[in-house]
Structure formats: structure tokens, C-alpha cells
Fold:
Amino acid sequence: EYMGRSTASCPFRNMVTSATEERSFALRRYYTPAEVSCHNSGDDCWVSFFYRVYDLTPLVKANRGPLVEPLIRAAGQDITHWFNPKTQEPKTFIDPITNLEAFYMPQGRFIHAPPRGPRTDWANDFGTPWWKDSLYWIGNLSRKTRKIKVINMLTHQEDILEVCSEETMLEITSRYKVFNNHTESYTWKRLGRPLDMNLTLEQNHIPDDSEEFERLSIDDDEYIPAVHVYFNDDLSVA
Structure:
């Protein structure tokens, strides 16, 4: 039975905090769905749509009230289904009462969405709506995640990382810092061959066989490719 550690459930839970003032979590090019799901409250509100990840925490905190409730309920989730894939604007429908086109919001009207029908209390001078505002964009959602087992040849500790298939080995090492803060002091190898840290797992000839496993009805966790890390020197200490 595997007795190592894993980041698959809620990675970096103790490393990330709310983005109200200054972001203290590690900004990445790509995030896993599990990472997004950890930010699931009004004080720490991430969502994803169209494979982009948004930190809406500042928006929620600056606009307390019923119009942010749908965002809080959706925190930590993918909300691509809220939007039209062609226009990337909220979905619309023909209102049977007004016979006019309106945003389709079964989850409830959310901030920056116009009300149904003319109203004098709706301020539309907010500028760019949040779903088009790059201010809240913090990275991309991985289109495919995979697991690797990292075996420390100095301590013989084994750890399982859930990583994004688009990430380079150098980016993957930053995920390993949860378990080993001196990862820069190690050489990463696969079957005795040093890995190119500027390439992805696939480009380093570590293929993702999950589709083949699925075809053969084999559990992905039955075989997780292993990467060995060898201690060089304490180069990460000034």
C-alpha cells in the first residue's frame, strides 16, 4: 500500500490565502480543477470558465449584497455553462413578459448583469464587466491533469503530485516545494536520464497513458510514472 504524501485532494491548502489586499498564493500559468475548488467561499472566491481561472475575491468583497451571492455559491467551480461559447457573454433568452432579449440567469442575477426591464436604480457605469475584465484573470485551467510519483533518493520519501500536462518540469518543481522547500538542490531524472526542466512530461518522453488505461478498464492509480530526484548540494540556501 502506498504510504507517501499527495497533493491531489486540496493542494497548497495551507499556502494560499484570500486575495483581498495582496495575493500571497503562488501565481501559475496553469491550475488544476482541484486547486480552483479549494477557493470556495466569499472570502476566497475563484471560478473558471473557458479554461481561464479568475480570482473574484476583490470583486465580492467590494460589492457585498445579493448580486454577489450567485458568485459565492459558484466559488471553486467551473461556470462555463453560464456563457455563450460563441460570444463568451452570458447566455440570453427571450423574456416571455417583455418579449426582449435578456440574460439567462437561473442561478440568480449577478453583479454587472442588467435587470429584466428598465430600472432607475441600476448603475451601468461600472466599466468592464467582471467576466471580461483581465484584472481578475490569474491563469489558465489545465485541459488535462496527470499524476507523477516523486521519489527522493536521499530520504527515500515518495510523494504523489497532481500536475498540469501543460507545465514544464521547472513549473512542476514549484509544486514539489509543498514537500521539499529545497527542490532547486536536486537533479530530476527518469530511468537514470536527467530531465530537461524546460520541457513538459510528455516532451521528456513520459507519456500520459490514462486514455489507454481507460480503454482497458484499468485504474489510473495502478501505475503512476515515477521521477527520481537526486540531492546535489544545498544550492537553494544563500
Summary: The chain has a mean pLDDT of 88. The radius of gyration is 22 Å. The CA atoms of residues 196 and 204 lie 7 Å apart. The first strand starts at residue 5 and ends at 6.
